[in-house]
Amino acid sequence: MELYSTLSRTVEPLETLHPDRIYLFVCGPTVYDYSHLGHARTYVVFDVLTKYLRWTGKEVFYLQNITDVDDKIINRAKEDGISQSVLARKFEAEYLRDMKSLGIDAVSYYARATTHIPEIIGQVRRLIEKEVAYVTESGVYFNLDTFGHNGELSGQERAKRVSRVSDATKHNPLDFALWKLGEYGEYTWDSPWGRGRPGWHIEDTAISEKYFGQQYDIHGGGLDLIFPHHEAEIAQMESLEGKHPMVRYWLHTGFLTVKGEKMSKSLGNFITIRDALKTWNRDVLRYFILLSHYRSPLQATDEGLANTAKGLDHIRAIATKDKGADAEGRRAFVEAMESDLNTPMALAAIQRLAGNGDLEALREYGQILGINFLKETSAPLSVLHEIRAELRAQKQFAVADLIRERMVAAGITITDKPL
RNA sequence: GCCGGUGUGGCAGAGCGGUUAAUGCCUUCGCCUGCAAAGCGGAUGCGUGGGGGUUCGACUCCCUCCGCCGGCGCCA
Asked: Pick from A96, A232, A350, A414: most CB atoms within 10 A?
């Protein structure tokens, strides 16, 4: 398989550190609110990547962190008048529920920041011992001057950067926090430097080091995490162990856009996953997401989703008779997936497979993509269809058409046979 | 300002240094149908942002300009 890595800005063959075993880390959510379709995109993509790799026989350890200690959580908990842990546990559960409704189930292990405090403190301590971090009265900071590879991932030269986070005690305004001293309520821990809480970036490296070691294969996340978050992770981990690169394949998903703008909490233009699921089912949402390449921006519109739903119906409508294996279609699907997870191309292959009646492939590939391409029938629906058929046979068209009208309005597809 | 990305038909969105530029939706005609829908068959849609360059040949590679989007130290 070939994957595009942000680190090299090129598509490279996937060569893993261990044969047949892949370590994949994806930045998880900060659990202070409901997740939206932009998040859904990223997690669907990595769900599909993992399922595809497993389908090819690889063992994938897919690790995802849950950021449950953070400014946003502290502030939201204060606003809502509840404790940080109650808020975090609630939205962690909501997140997992959303993931489940989207059919995202490839993650091997979810790791909370708050259950890895000893590992985090351990890393901070080691970074201080390595003399790449220093302690001030406000916290512990990473000294970016000590790290030669800085800026490698984002292409940003540090001399040209401007820091927005000001803290007079930092040696350099660009240095970032590893440990923040102070009392932050419930989520405050004792450390060798005093009571406080972790900085943002340190949880990921503490968690990934614990489960994967100092070096691993793939790190994924949204495009917006490249800088500074992923740069900081690299600085922390590589300074600690000297292994370079910490991660060879950095995969970043493009934004879901609304009227050309990034879908985000701050712009208020977001649709939560559960709201979207009120109108569109998970097959449609996944199909919609996979219809574009994961690195391209994707326009979210009602029209687009409606078209997607029709397209999916079309596949189901034509994939009825099993005509055996379509070797060419199967090859096209696999080739597309091998080529930097080109799901739009893979879905074009799915169209062919449906047209050519390779139902087995549709079932198998549908599991990789998490989409059911085959028509489902349920008992209640079959009964209704039977009643309509009988009415039509008796030429009771008025009643038959009324039933049809109502069924279509309810989003149920009906296919009549000639009388 | 700096860095990164992106610009393909009515819409969404792929690909490729060289036959008619995927696929789906949309539009339209026919078949089918009790009528529709679905399906099947056909048709149409001034389409590769502008300008240079490399090349026998560029949508594809290079340069440049323009537009749009994002990041710039706690956004997937």
From this structure: A350
DSSP states along A267-327: TT---BHHHHHHHS-HHHHHHHHHTS-TTS-EE--HHHHHHHHHHHHHHHHH--S-----H
> Residues near A327 by Cβ (< 8 Å), separated by ≥ 6?
none
Which nt has its C1' nearest the CA of A200? B74
Q: Which nucleotides of B are covered by protein (CB under 7 A)?
A: 1-7, 11-16, 22-26, 32-40, 68-76
Range of the domain at A294: 258-369
The CATH number covering residue A103 comes to: 3.40.50.620
Same domain, A231 and A330: no
Q: Among all strands, which nt has the closest C1' to A36 (CA)?
A: B76
Q: Which residue is nearest to nucleotide B32 (CA to C1')?
A: A418
* Same-domain pairing of A13 and A82: yes
Which of A253, A288, A310 is a domain's end point? Answer: A253
Q: What is the pLDDT of residues A305-332, one digit of tens each?
A: 988 999 999 999 898 889 899 999 999 9
Does A162 share its domain with A297? Answer: no
Last residue of a domain, one of A253, A274, A299: A253
Q: How far is the CA of A8 from the C1' of B62 (A)?
A: 20
**Other CB atoms within 10 A of residue A361 CB:** 24
Closest nucleotide to residue A395 (Cα to C1')? B34
Q: pLDDT of A23-78, one tens digit each?
A: 999 999 999 999 999 999 999 999 999 999 999 999 999 999 999 999 899 999 99
The domain total for chain A is 3
Q: Which long-range contacts (CB under 8 A, 24 or more apart) does A159-167 make?
A: A167/A138, A167/A139
